[in-house]
Please model this.
Amino acid sequence: MATIQDIGVSAAINILSAVIFLLAFAFLRLQPINDRVYFPKWYLKGTRQSPSHGGAFVRKFVNLDMRSYLKFLSWMPAALQMPEDELISHAGLDSAVYLRIYLTGLKIFVPITILAFLVLVPVNWTNDTLEGLKVEHSDIDKLSISNIPFGSKRFIAHLTMAYVFTFWTCYVLLREYEIVATMRLRFLASEKRRPDQFTVLVRNIPPDPDESIGELAEHFFLVNHPDHYLTHQVVYNANKLANLVKEKKKMQNWLDFYQLKYERNASKRPTVKTGFLGCFGSKVDAVEHYTSEIERIEKEEAEEREKIVKDPKLVVPAAFVSFRSRWGAAVCAQTQQTSNPTVWLTEWAPEPRDVYWDNLSIPIVHLTVRRLIIAVAFFFLNFFYVIPIAFVQSLANIEGIEKAVPFLKPIIEMPAIKSFIQGFLPGIALKIFLILLPSILMFMSKVEGLTSVSSLERRSASKYYIFLFFNVFLASIIAGSALEQLQTYLHQSANQIPRTIGVAIPMKATFFITYVMVDGWAGVAGEILRLKPLVIFHLKNFFLVKTEKDREEAMDPGSIGFDSNEPQIQLYFLLGLVYAVVTPFLLPFILVFFVLAYVVYRHQIINVYNQEYESAAAFWPSVHGRIITALIVSQLLFLGLLSTKGAGQSTPVLLVLPVVTFYFHKYCKNRYEPAFVEYPLQEAMRKDTLERAREPGFDLKTYLASAYIHPVFKGEDDEKFSMMDEGEADQVLVATKRQSRRNTPVPSRNNGSEAPSMPEIVNDQRL
Amino acid sequence: MATIQDIGVSAAINILSAVIFLLAFAFLRLQPINDRVYFPKWYLKGTRQSPSHGGAFVRKFVNLDMRSYLKFLSWMPAALQMPEDELISHAGLDSAVYLRIYLTGLKIFVPITILAFLVLVPVNWTNDTLEGLKVEHSDIDKLSISNIPFGSKRFIAHLTMAYVFTFWTCYVLLREYEIVATMRLRFLASEKRRPDQFTVLVRNIPPDPDESIGELAEHFFLVNHPDHYLTHQVVYNANKLANLVKEKKKMQNWLDFYQLKYERNASKRPTVKTGFLGCFGSKVDAVEHYTSEIERIEKEEAEEREKIVKDPKLVVPAAFVSFRSRWGAAVCAQTQQTSNPTVWLTEWAPEPRDVYWDNLSIPIVHLTVRRLIIAVAFFFLNFFYVIPIAFVQSLANIEGIEKAVPFLKPIIEMPAIKSFIQGFLPGIALKIFLILLPSILMFMSKVEGLTSVSSLERRSASKYYIFLFFNVFLASIIAGSALEQLQTYLHQSANQIPRTIGVAIPMKATFFITYVMVDGWAGVAGEILRLKPLVIFHLKNFFLVKTEKDREEAMDPGSIGFDSNEPQIQLYFLLGLVYAVVTPFLLPFILVFFVLAYVVYRHQIINVYNQEYESAAAFWPSVHGRIITALIVSQLLFLGLLSTKGAGQSTPVLLVLPVVTFYFHKYCKNRYEPAFVEYPLQEAMRKDTLERAREPGFDLKTYLASAYIHPVFKGEDDEKFSMMDEGEADQVLVATKRQSRRNTPVPSRNNGSEAPSMPEIVNDQRL
Model:
């Protein structure tokens, strides 16, 4: 049992390390040489140039202005000054709403903390149960519910507070949902024209022997959306080409590296070995080698480009279909096209930069199977991940290594190395796994076949949350791996489980306080230091950078990392809500986390992170849903705890809470979730009307022409792959190759293939 | 433990009673006087007239043709002869697909029965575990899994069969889903024009101080669906008027009754007392009294009709909006209209006769609360219904009655009456509850606010199924009321529950065999006899019928009663799937039920039931879902059973089944459910195009004008309440009362209210 003194020491250490991080940051950010590490966002925006204060050469690298060091926390108010509207236009709605998660945390927990300290702490403190029991206990336990005697009437205070906290949390959530929904709608209604407002992603276009995918799509939409269809963009399977481009870039980097080396030391031409990892094979001149490699890849690339244009097999059965108006696109995206719901699937096109191209070609029948496989795999990952790690750990001990590589025995037996292996190696397998976990989860989400980066991140985030819930939260409380928990859940009765967990909760408060300080405080302070990007930037800057453009590319602004950061915030919501009634002493630590994280991330969003996509806060429903989950978990655990405290008669009173919370969630879902999923026709019509009145002659087709081409085609050969390639989009009367069937509209087996036989009738109607 | 002899006796009794019912039916249906009871469907269709074989007077009432009695089962082949397409056009798709539920049962269980008898029965029979144990057992138990020794290798046979049965069931379900979906699509695509194909139900039209609901709706849709909007029909709150009409009809019935009485016995004018239930108050002349009553009601009715037309408060904030094309309606029904998802809610209009008018005015914010209340109420009804019944039963004993009404004591103490009360009264409370249950569930569904009769019936059916599952299936197996079960579920661990239930399953086989015979065989045979409608028809015929029209109204054809009948079929699916592996001896009894029920209901659907609405088989997804539920339950219970039989190592092998079944369900849901929820645009466009080509000048507006008026307005004053009342629907340029705001399109707080200020712009664009 940790005493307040222990906590104090721990807090001091963590505050100290946080302060060191912040000081280091304050120092490093002022050095001009690090400018691109700490302010990349501004470089990307083009409003900041590499520092070139006239003056001395050294000034380019080191800041000699002593006064600026004195105000080493000046970034904090600066980070808070930018108003929200400016933030949205500077960094996008996603970033602004992401910051609101921290704000929501503050809004929920500041009043709860005050109330808990005013009401619950005195109620808990003025007992002497723990002293009477003569068990070992700390002062923190005296502040917690553990200090209330069995069956006491004082539990009424906790019960009331459980109600108050629930209603307050729900109220804040409701308000926030409303605010975010309004922000999203305002953002979507904002004046800027965007290609995705007019475009629908169509997947699973059924194959047709007579027509190409492009023709098929055009005919289908000309028939079924005659007044609205504008143009379309077929999707090419350019995965191989993308790989070539990536390889070329790698080679180019090596070439730059050796050229720089040669320039700096002109006396000796650098050489390289052609074999595996540059360690084996014959020695050749490095510059020549890489130049010829690049030429080879360029040739292959050109061939591949030719092939993509010519080979119809490289056209994916998907297309981006654009409409004349937002209304037309909104209609198409929200309706079912054919009677077979597995073909001609329409959904809103993601933003061009948000598209995850690799998954566009997956047929829908595979999706169910893929999801099943991933669900099973995730189940095992969640509950059984300890098994392979234990296996690796069993190998990674002294005896295991000595057996596997006997010739290393003399080295391993050296005392220093031996103690290192014994003390460090077992943990390293787990550490590597935890570092790799977000990537594993992202890989799983990719297998599931989602088509936009934003939805991939959302999916990974929910997987990560589940993992944290079982393997950090519950595992710490009942001190068992998720696998052992699974045993418990299967073998214990439904009303025993919350009791088992609930009883252990007050005892783990000190552990979680330490956790919040290490993971929350120091972790967030570490985030602002950006140690890894700092090192990598300087390495690249030294070895690779030749031109200003190279330097641009050497910057790694990173992004918010919704898939791994949001679940971690959610863990704090969970801890806060669970401990609010039980051990209010934990709440201030969480408050500090929220404040610190809010400031730090606001700074990072303004100065560092580069937004990868704009989903217009599409993630809020899952953020909301997870806070609701945390609330219900906290209610059930509190119920379990109270029923072991001789307050079993409170169970029905407390059971009301989860039921009401669940229906509150349903209400919110009905009321606000559509704003994140659908696109109302009224809004679409309003924007269309306004825009037509303002810019009557706007050429939408040209505007949309190259919006949705694969990034590897960007720039050089837009025209070749763009929507304009068929040059016949203006012809409303479509020429079809199926002359024989032209005037006999018999229903064909294939749903899509009948479409082209009908445009004549449609056009007769319209003329 | 019942032996095969006991089962034989029980079977003989039930078969005998079924045969008696069938014979009685065969006799009664041949009597011309009963013609309207057994063939009302044909009268309603107008293809059958009251029997008037020339000949003798007696022939009108009694069938004297002796030969017809010999072929007393001749209705059976007749019922089977009508081909499915004809059946669909005769009785609707709902009825035809309803019959497919029985067919599905046969398709699933015939091969399963054969396989189980070929494989499992020999495997079970050739053991002597039960004899070795020397426990009391019957021959049926020797055929069941109970006869396999603990930990035997023979369980592999059962395991394999569990897999085979699962895959067969899934295969049949998949095929049936596909067939039904195709039938539905073909039905919807069939040539007949129907008002609901063009119409969308709009709910929660936000109030506006300047315009009436009708104007508001017109303006909104003219702006947001300018090319497609045709006309609309406001909904009046005519609940009071409907009550008046109902009351008038009752008075008319009494008037008819007394007039007939007077005609038959002209010597004495009938009198009636005006007080409560005709028992108290002053005596008046009956004919005069009811004539004046009817006059009074007619006056009130006329006033009410006037009021409805004039009072804007009696206009419900909902409207039926019709479009020029199916395409336009499909678009509007499937999209969100405004950014506030709680106003301007659109959904497909139900068929006119399917509309449940009373619920059209419920605001959407109430719906969540109503659902919460009903969910809680249903939870208590399901698990706690025994409590009030036990309370009533405790009152309904001798002492209770004697205390309540002491003056009855001498009568009650009479031995005959006493034994009657003791033996009968306690059961009667339960019986009354069970008879009332479907009505209670329907009432609950109505409170939930659904707007069509078909969806009300579907909702009630799922409630009833849950009730049957807990209170008949599980209550019979573990022999506890649902309340006691709830205790078990809460106090037992998750893997103990299927074990507890699984172990009890083989022991209850004989009970369920008897249940199938009583409830299934005799019940279905009783259904065809239609005893209650028979009696009521003859009573009405004698007392009320004056004209041919009265006789028409005295017929009570009834309908399938999806809400109470379908869950009962599902119980047989559940029993069949659960016992298929455990006690295959039960399967033939279920087969007999399915065959008998199929023939009987096919006969009833052809000759008796009057279809109340046409939902185009919208209920199939829930039928499918419940069979899947039954399958998963059977798998889990079998898993629990095996784990107590020393075959615990089979658990992982069996756990695969529910997971795969669940994902099979998800696959089916993705693949086929949209066909029951959405309306594909391609189909809509195809029908529109064909229809326009065939009937270019069709006046859709007149056709739709009176389709969606409240049934109480039907006939007499169509024009007054129909869509044409405003006479300005053709004006595309809408005159609005808000002159001041007309040219200033500032976004107003209310989402709906901005709409009318924009048509000018829209029209400029279109001209």
Summary: Confidence is low (pLDDT under 50) at residues 723-767 of chain A. Chain A touches chain B through 62 residues (CB under 8 Å). Residues 366-448 of chain A form one domain.
